[in-house]
Amino acid sequence: MAGVTDKSFRSVLRDHGCPLLYTEMISDKALTYGNTNTLELLDISGESRPIVVQIFGSEPDVMAKAAVLVEEKGASIIDINMGCPAPKIVRNQEGSCLLKMPERAVEIARQVVQAVQVPVTVKMRIGWSPEEIVVPELPQRLEAVGVQAITLHGRTRDMFYSGKANWSMIKQTAQALSIPLIGNGDVWEPEDALRMLEETGCSAVMIARGAMGNPWIFSRLIGWTKTGQLAPPPTARERIEQGLIHLERIVAQKGEYRGVREMRSHLAWYLKGLKGASKVRGDINRAPDYNTVIALLTEAMERLKQ
Ligand SMILES: Cc1cc2nc3c(=O)[nH]c(=O)nc-3n(C[C@H](O)[C@H](O)[C@H](O)COP(=O)(O)O)c2cc1C
């Protein structure tokens, strides 16, 4: 997730046992121009494998060049974004715009597959709009050019992130493919992940928003499948402690100024639903430095213990 699954959050998710992590999406053009901000997005050094690097773009040859660079950096899998609905992405014929241009989408996949040795996967939505559904045909064509798995978000582009993901199209697409279909959309709790596997017959589940401020979704899910016991959700103290650990890592990675600011949204997610959360969130959003945020979180932890 762009702006969310940076190196520091990936390390938190890894602590909770998430078995397959993806980078934020990375522009093919920025990669091939050697843009320095982009090199930070591509920094997967020291991280356990497998790890997926996701790229987005619109030109098959530029995407193929970007894929080669990503492979050289040590990606285990290269994922092509065909789902992002953001206007600034779609305007450049990238992300979910490719669902409207199936020939281009297939050509991008074909050239990327040919350019690298590592497996290539595609992340996509069910279509642009209810009148322009592209499953299962486009996934089948992607499979035919060598794509090794498809992640399907059960929404159309025009839904953005609202409404309900259509799991029956995930089921229908899983049945139409020989390669693994990874289901995505509206997995908020461990129960939803198992329900998606059962209801759709998909091979795996991708969790996005359900992990924001909630890395326990992975540890609880994994623990549950191993022991048959679903652990309770984290306590207020555990959530704040996790926020402190995450804060320390993001500051180590990005420096105090950026770390403190980029951490604000993560802390809002960790604190969501706790007593007095909105006041603490407001204070954190005004806090200028690392020590002030630590003091605010420590104080909130003390108060919530009583
Ligand atoms: C803040 C945010 C950033 C996202 N960034 C990406 C991205 O970089 N690449 C991608 O394939 N999907 C991205 N997504 C979409 C998610 O991967 C996922 O498809 C969508 O949120 C539906 O799954 P969920 O219901 O589990 O959240 C993003 C979603 C959000 C909310």
TrEMBL record:
Q: Which residues form a coiled coil?
A: none
Please state the Enzyme Commission number of this protein. Answer: 1.3.1.-
**Single GO molecular function:** tRNA binding
Kindly state which reaction or reactions the protein catalyses. a 5,6-dihydrouridine in tRNA + NAD(+) = a uridine in tRNA + NADH + H(+); a 5,6-dihydrouridine in tRNA + NADP(+) = a uridine in tRNA + NADPH + H(+)
What region holds the DUS-like FMN-binding domain? Answer: 1-293
List the active site: C84
Q: Which Gene3D superfamilies match?
A: Aldolase class I, Putative flavin oxidoreducatase, domain 2
The record's section on Pfam families has: Dus (PF01207)
The entry's FMN-binding residues are Q54, K123, H153, A208, R209
Cofactor(s) this protein cannot do without: FMN
Q: Which InterPro entries match?
A: Aldolase_TIM, DUS-like_FMN-bd, DUS_fam, DusB-like, tRNA-dHydroUridine_Synthase_C, tRNA_hU_synthase_CS
Q: Which UniProt keywords apply?
A: Flavoprotein, FMN, NADP, Nucleotide-binding, Oxidoreductase, RNA-binding, tRNA processing, tRNA-binding
Described by its record, this protein's role is as follows: Catalyzes the synthesis of 5,6-dihydrouridine (D), a modified base found in the D-loop of most tRNAs, via the reduction of the C5-C6 double bond in target uridines.
**Which family does this protein fall into?**
Belongs to the dus family.
Which NCBIfam families does UniProt cross-reference here? nifR3_yhdG
Q: Write down what this protein is called.
A: tRNA-dihydrouridine synthase
The scientific name of the source species is Heliorestis acidaminivorans
